[in-house]
Amino acid sequence: MSTFAQLSGLRGGAGVVRVIGHRGARGVMPENTLEGFSFTLATGVQVLEFDVVMTADGVPVVTHNHHLANSATRDAHGRWLTGAERKVAEMTFAEIRALDVGGLDGRTAYGKRFPDQAFLSGIRVPRLGDLLDLCASHGENAPYLLLELKSDPALMRDDAARADLVAAAVSDVRRYRMEARTVMHSFDWALLDECRRQAPDLPTSYLSQLPENADDPGEDSAKSVGPDYQGLTTTLPQTVAAAGGQLWCPYYLDVTPELVSEAHDLGLSVLTWTVNETDDIRRLVATGVDGIVTDYPGRTQRVLIDMGLTWN
Questions:
Q1: Angle at the Cα of 151 from the Cα atoms of 147 and 157, rounded to 5 degrees
Q2: Interval 83-136: pLDDT, tens
Q3: Boundaries of each GP-PDE domain copy (predicted)?
Q4: Does residue 58 fall inside a structural domain?
Q5: Is 222 among the domain residues?
């Protein structure tokens, strides 16, 4: 596991807990946008987490849900989308590019979750290549990337489509020479097997969320594409290590000091998501995790400073 250079920026250490900007800095900037990622990097955060979905014409784009959320999408005239939400896989990149994702509709359940998010206009869904180009422009200071592949529940049995998603993402990573900074990241553990088959030089990160924890409103659930947790015969860290993973990325309510210690004994780094409240940040730091995935990187930095810690 130590042969993966990418892991050096994702391990914690004496006095160090990594801060990972979730979808950039979703709490204060439009999520999964170049503007949000640029803001996060300007704060000194050196790890980004983001989501990749494929368009109808085979373009990997950076967006979380399989359908464009009406609560976060406006048309060319600035009007909120209404009606049935449009599926990314059924739209061309040009069609998606015509829409504005720079703000949240504050009347919706999703919009009310992030009242401090800046409202911008003229902001577009980026291609994966656009984000990789931005990151590569930082040269030796390029950030580390948790590239989350979003599995479409409707395509779980379509091996060719799943392989194409991996191939397109890996191709972009190689085109922008970001291999040494990229980790393949997914709730779909079987898809990570395909990542290792196509790109054995890229480490794999296993996202998990136990079924008893509720999904957040306004977001696609990953529960239908994840493993059968009740059918596991070993602990989550043991299962991830046996599968060939290098990182375990559990939901913050599923983390205990004992599981973190076990994961470390198995050689895994532990990054927990999505940790936003000050008390939760402090609690998760105390468990010994390597990093905090958060919608509020600045808030997390402040907590770490107060605790006498740093993030880089």
A1: 140
A2: 999 999 999 999 999 999 999 999 999 999 999 999 999 999 999 999 999 999
A3: 17-304
A4: yes
A5: yes
